[in-house]
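Entry 12.
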Amino acid sequence: MRYNVSVSDLACEQYDKFLEYIYFTLLNSQAADSLMQDFENEIG
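Predicted 3D structure (tokens):
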């Protein structure tokens, strides 16, 4: 079953901050890539 999901502006800001933290602070590009892939698979 497909659902229509709306992502709030706050959720988008938090997502961006998570990615920045993982990529630039933790220096873990693989984890950032995995987060982006999971987000795309779940929210699309």
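Annotation: The chain has a mean pLDDT of 88. Helices lie at 9-25, 29-42.
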